[in-house]
Amino acid sequence: MQRLLSDSNSYRLVQVTDTHLYADTSQVLVGMNCDEGLRDVIDLIRKKEDVIAGVLLTGDASQDNSAASYQRLHTTLATLGARQHWIPGNHDELKAMQKVLNAGNRCFEKSIRFGKWQVVMLVSNVVGAAHGMLKKAELDFLEEQLSSTNAEHILICLHHNPVPVKAAWLQQHALKNPEALFAILDRYPTVRAVLFGHIHHELKCKRNGVAYYGSPSTCIQFHPSHEEFALDHRNPGYRWLELHADGTLLTGVNRVRNKRYSVDFASIGY
Ligand SMILES: [Fe+2]
Fold first, then answer.
1. For the chain, which residues make up each domain, given as ranges?
2. Which end of the chain has a smaller Cβ tally under 10 Å, C or N?
């Protein structure tokens, strides 16, 4: 396991999310070429980050659930030289991902130790639906992880937002049973933060002492507060996270700069 060079008790991770790749690299999503966005974000990570211990891919890897898109994403992320940890989004199917990358691929491990931290990856997608749901088996898995680990600090990752967003159209597609998640988290004071994708914009809030972080996509950005579907003019980006042994979690978002993408900002859906 790679560690931060400056502090052997800390781990630097990056979250890459909502890459929405197609099998055909020339295909565009509301005007944007998602491969181009991903490439630029990977270049940015290379420029900004020194040593990273892992890449958290929090869903919507593919727009068309194609084998070629999953394979290409895996190969592209591998250029960062860190372990990958994948969960599916509403546009993905876990079984399809696992068929392409092999079910035994370590990127599908759902509980990963980083020193005094445990990162737990939860599957929240419902095949054929845009909204999310944590099924009983997933909630049981979380409970089992939290009750059995001797890690002092926990970071939980899922695709769908368990906390509300201001954009009403997007909130319709949120996690539908956040109270089931909260009921578990409320019993474990070691839980420090919950990280998600899906919302294609940056969000930070706190609930009962736990920090919740939403993050930009590597392709199109959703406007954070419009009632109806609306795209934001911000550029693609990623989130970095630094897990410290004392439980401190530092995090921030970096975006591609000095570039304009071809995006159909007048679009009323995607
Ligand atoms: Fe997405």
1. 11-255
2. N
